[in-house]
Amino acid sequence: MGPFIALALNGFREARRNRVTLLVAIFALAMLMSTTLVLEITVGTFDRVITDVGLGAMSLMLVLLAIFLSSGLISREIERRTIFLMVSKPLSRGAFLVGRLAGNMLTVTVLQLLMAALFFAMMSFYESPISPAHLAAVGMLWFELWVLSAVGFLMSSFSSQMVSAFVTVSVYFAGHLSSDIYKLASKSESGAIQALGKAVYYVLPDLSRFNYRPHATYYAPVTSSELLSAAAYGMAFTGVLVALAVVLFNRRDFR
Amino acid sequence: MDSPSPIEIRNLSKTYRLGFLMNRQVRALQSLDLSLMPGQVYGLLGPNGAGKSTTIKILLNLVQPSEGEARLFGLPPSDREARRRVGYVPENPAPYEYLTGREFVTLSGRLNGLSGKELDDRVSEVLGMVQMTRAANLQIRRYSKGMVQRVALAQALVSKPALLILDEPTSGLDPVGRRQIRDLILEERHRGTTVLFCTHIIPDVEALCDRVAVLVGGRRVREGSVAELVSAQTTHVEMTVEGLPLEHIQAMGITLEMARPLENRVLLHVRESDAQPLLKHVLEQGGRVTQLHPARFSLEELFLRALEEAKQGPVGGEIS
Ligand SMILES: Nc1ncnc2c1ncn2[C@@H]1O[C@H](COP(=O)(O)OP(=O)(O)O)[C@@H](O)[C@H]1O
Ligand SMILES: [Mg+2]
């Protein structure tokens, strides 16, 4: 097992032994289960409601978890001084950072797989039809989680967990609005506002590209080219953030 | 061609920039030179803030020097191959608390490229060496300070390093814990491992080191073997006289640096140049000299003297 894999697997072990992760996981599963409670009041639109509530709950819990975990990833190592024993090992700082992020994404992925399995099990239990849009909604959420984790992770490599989490939550909201901001600004008469809208759009991730929950709710068709381009966009955005984190981290003194 | 020195430091300086605007500067290290021979146990002795940890962190690529260079086995610390041959225990080591001692030492072995049965065997071996076999499967959050220190040492030893770098390995430990760490350092020295450690605890230096450098305010103020440093200070002679009361000796007109009457004898310290005349007077007056030897300054006196001198001259510290 290479050093990189050892680090990633250790990150997963850390999450498993972290009470907060465990609590969130249990809570999220319980919340998904409880969506069945809405069954009796909304018999007519049952398929829509189970999709809406199920995917919504899954997305909310995973986004919160991804932000919580990633924002503490590096800052906690520095605060607790565990970083000294790690960065001094025969391992490049880049490998250390990417190994930590990989471990984090392993945790997030396992939790998402658990929730998705439960969600689809419930759908089939209630004989609610599963469309390609449902799979797209779950799959694209995974790319959104990469982008958000990379933001939290980049922030946590030079600021505290509080600041990192705050910034990441802000990026989450702004990122879902960034395409709206862009459209709004492009309608403006002023060239300056148009430019500003463009700048905001290119600096912030366009998180609405990963949101296929409305498609799933209304059983709308999705095209694979659209999905592929969103996935590539997510990974590219993540790659840039990680590269930036590595550059900043490489020059840093740990005193 | 002889193998490159485990540690070679030339003209090393570090200035930390502090404050929100990075406009305050602290000079932590100034023009340090240091060279270790293979197999040496080398001590960096100095008070708090002397720059000991800064030196060590530069050697482990944790801190970038402002000037000068450091080499590990002829390679820069940023080279992973250089660090592969080093075992490091930081000051107040903080291994992951959610892991057990065994898990952490195993992780360290993996990061050093070990795997499989070789790794498992080596982990058990080093845990045995630091006497942590029984507590190995307990989470580190439940460990005492001494246990954490020993696990940190085990994770440094797991890769069989040719060079051990220890930052204050015995500070904050009780006498038993300190003794155990000292014994482990001595064992490593027998194996031929080169050891660099820093401390402000003088008995540790006396008990362990071949050579020592004294750092004060970021500058090296003394360097040499422990014996050399101590004997360089020997300018006094200690004499034990029997059969003469102290008053008679005092009446001889020789400056006594120290005079202590004991039960049936007197213990005297005089300057080297006064030793012959004093001896003559004592013998003439019927006294007996039962002991005569150069008065040894302890390393502690040497250290305090170096501190005193450094206070008068220019030293580092905050410069703006
Ligand atoms: N994290 C830090 N922030 C600011 N100054 C520091 C920091 N670490 C060390 N220094 C300064 O650098 C100097 C040397 O410190 P250090 O190398 O830790 O000394 P030692 O290990 O000998 O006690 C001191 O003046 C100290 O104030
Ligand atoms: Mg120190």
From TrEMBL, chain A:
Record-annotated membrane-spanning stretches: 20-41, 53-74, 95-121, 133-155, 162-179, 227-249
UniProt entry tagged with the keyword Transmembrane helix: yes
Gene Ontology CC: plasma membrane
UniProt keywords, alphabetically: Membrane, Transmembrane, Transmembrane helix
Protein's UniProt keywords contain Ubl conjugation: no
Molecular-function annotations in GO: ABC-type transporter activity
A Pfam family per the record: ABC2_membrane_2
Name of the protein this chain belongs to: ABC transporter permease
Organism of this sequence: Archangium violaceum Cb vi76
Taxonomic lineage of the native organism: Bacteria, Pseudomonadati, Myxococcota, Myxococcia, Myxococcales
Automatic annotation (TrEMBL), chain B:
SMART domains per UniProt: AAA
SUPFAM superfamilies, A to Z: P-loop containing nucleoside triphosphate hydrolases (SSF52540)
GO MF assignments: ATP binding; ATP hydrolysis activity
Keyword Thylakoid part of the UniProt annotation: no
CDD domains, per database record: ABC_DR_subfamily_A
Transmembrane segments: none
Protein origin, superkingdom: Bacteria
Annotated ABC transporter domain residues: 7-242
InterPro entries assigned to the protein according to its UniProt record, in alphabetical order: AAA+_ATPase, ABC_transporter-like_ATP-bd, P-loop_NTPase
Keywords on record: ATP-binding, Nucleotide-binding, Transport
Family indicated by similarity: Belongs to the ABC transporter superfamily.
Name of the featured protein: ABC transporter
Origin species: Archangium violaceum Cb vi76
Species lineage: Bacteria, Pseudomonadati, Myxococcota, Myxococcia, Myxococcales
